[in-house]
Design brief:
Blueprint lengths: L1 E8 L8 E9 L4 E5 L4 H4 L1 H11 L9 E7 L11 H11 L5 H4 L2 E3 L2 E2 L5 E2 L4 H10 L5 E5 H7 L7 E4 L2 H8 L14 E3 L20 H13 L3 E4 L6 H6 L10 H13 L13 E2 L7 H5 E2 L4 E2 L1 H4 L4 E4 L7 H5 L2 H6 L1 E5 L4 E5 L3 E6 L18 H8 L4 H4 L4 E4 L5 H6 L6 H19 L8 H8 L3 H14 L3 H17 L7 H9 L9
Parallel strand pairs: 3-4, 5-8, 8-9, 11-18, 11-19, 12-15, 15-18
Antiparallel strand pairs: 1-2, 2-4, 6-7, 9-10, 13-14, 16-17
Length: 510
């Protein structure tokens, strides 16, 4: 008879709560029981673990009653990440490896039937959670997963190719005494320098007003709505938005990479780059916001610290669009199910694009619109007022004449625009510690530093056009970003006047 404890971690959102894998071998009718609120793929570990131990040339205790408990019992567990700790627990309880050595490690890994280790989802997220919790144990993973987990410098990470490699290092103290065992590798990854985006704003001819709006949005963290006919360049502009954003700090880059790791999309070549998510307009609310059981992150979490581009905005499901309202305000999304609850970060900039009408040519200089006023009203009415009220900047992107397009000089490059944007963003961070878009209530009035004439202009506009309080604050936030780009300490009349130009109503009756 034997009892062994192996330390592991589950995934719950971006958190990685500790799971104690307890293995008990007892006399009695041979069986293999797994308890502890395990999902289907976790329960299937019994067959994978049995085959992996046998095919690795190790002894599986067929004549024992095996009980595996995943504690705490009320924490949901999913995926095959518990295969390795269960196998090590069985080997330790049966005396084949040193149980004391296991106390130094947190282990995760999926086993193949041959005993090889398969990578697990969320390795970097787990490593980052251990760093935040100041967990002193080393993280033992499949080699592919260990290479991404090692990007967190505060955590010691070891990687192995197979179960047999790990067992060879845990059999005796003498074999495991060296710091670099032959059967596994201690990894120390150095993040590469972030690469600049290959997409450049210089490729976009004309559209000086739209580029100015993008510059303001990037400097202040504001959301943006582009309205224009088909082929006017809305998608081309949006694709280059991420190249304007300030670079990620090391901690932000780790958080962004951890989210991609959680979604199984970690890419080392994209380290330090602002993420850009572009879901298709047929995406469901669960794909956009997140969902499932247990909850999985959606596109808005993938766009965390970057941009979310929604092309053909009115074609999205109404429920999916309305679900964006809370994340746009709070910067996070809460997903609750009967037995699960998860909170995912979602501080993204929304870049939305749409046609002005169903045919797309309302207000076009050369093409006639075929839509009736009622059709235009219904089409634009698919986007609710509360959602539009949360989009800081509305800008028209008109079609450019072919002759002007061919002979237009090259505009400002992303590098030139980014330099001004970074300086303005740095001013905001130095002044208030966060982007202008996050200014609320008394903090907005304090840091906007609007002159009396600027305040009077904003008040007159609000009374004339019956603006909501949210829209008035929106104008002041955008004006604050315009003032930062102008290197001005105070928000003046000209800054408010320009900000008001980005608040025009969508509807434009023919």
């Amino acid at each position: 008879m034997g009892l062994a404890h192996v330390r592991s971690r589950a995934l719950s959102g971006l958190n990685a709560p500790v799971v104690d894998v307890e293995v008990d071998l007892a006399n009695g009718l041979p069986s293999f029981t797994l308890v502890g609120l395990a999902d289907t793929e976790v329960k299937e570990a019994r067959e994978r673990v049995r085959a992996a131990i046998q095919n690795s040339g190790l002894n599986f205790p067929h004549n024992k009653r095996i009980t595996v408990n995943l504690a705490p019992a009320d924490l949901p567990k999913d995926s095959g990440r518990f295969d390795l700790p269960i196998a090590l627990g069985i080997l330790a309880a049966s005396g084949q490896i040193d149980v004391d050595r296991l106390a130094d490690f947190t282990t995760l890994g999926e086993l193949s039937l041959s005993g090889r280790l398969r990578p697990v989802r969320g390795a970097l997220a787990t490593s980052l959670a251990m760093a935040h919790a100041a967990d002193p144990s080393a993280l033992l993973l499949p080699l592919d997963s260990a290479q991404e987990a090692a990007w967190v410098p505060q955590v010691r990470v070891a990687g192995a190719d197979s179960l047999l490699d790990i067992v060879a290092c845990l059999q005796t103290h003498e074999q495991a005494a060296t710091d670099t065992p032959n059967s596994w590798q201690w990894l120390h990854a150095q993040p590469p320098a972030p690469q600049r985006s290959a997409l450049d704003m210089a490729d976009v001819k004309g559209h000086a007003a739209a580029k100015r709006a993008f510059e303001i949005a990037a400097a202040g963290g504001h959301s943006l709505l582009l309205v224009g006919p088909p082929g006017s360049g809305k998608s081309m502009l949006a694709a280059r938005f991420a190249s304007l954003l300030p670079p990620l700090s090391t901690e932000q880059a780790l958080e962004s990479a951890a989210i991609l790791s959680l979604m199984g999309r970690f890419d080392a070549s994209a380290w330090g780059q602002r993420p850009m998510a572009s879901p298709h307009h047929s995406a469901s609310a669960a794909a956009l916001i997140g969902g499932g059981s247990p909850p999985k992150p959606g596109a808005i979490t993938q766009a965390h610290l970057g941009a979310l581009f929604l092309d053909e905005l009115p074609e999205f499901n109404r429920a999916a669009l309305e679900a964006l309202r809370e994340p746009l305000e709070t910067g996070e999304v809460h997903i609750s199910r009967a037995a699960h609850h998860a909170c995912f970060p979602a501080r993204f900039q929304l870049i939305a694009a749409m046609n002005p009408c169903p045919c797309g040519y309302l207000g076009h200089a050369k093409k006639a619109c075929r839509c009736t006023p009622d059709q235009v009203h219904r089409y634009q009415g698919r986007i609710s007022g509360p959602l539009l009220d949360r989009i800081d900047i509305h800008i028209e992107v008109p079609a450019i004449d072919a002759n002007d397009l061919l002979h237009a000089p090259a505009g400002a490059s992303s590098a030139d625009m980014a330099q001004r944007i970074h300086q303005a963003a740095a001013r905001a961070l130095q002044r208030q510690g966060h982007p202008n878009q996050a200014l609320q209530g008394e903090a907005l009035l304090t840091h906007a530093q609007a002159t009396s004439a600027a305040q009077a202009m904003a008040q007159q506009a609000a009374e004339r056009w019956q603006w909501s309080s949210r829209r008035v604050h929106r104008v002041l936030r955008v004006a604050r970003s315009i003032a930062d780009l102008a290197n001005s300490d105070a928000v003046a009349v000209e800054h408010v006047a320009e900000a008001m130009q980005y608040q025009r109503a969508l509807l434009q009756q023919p």
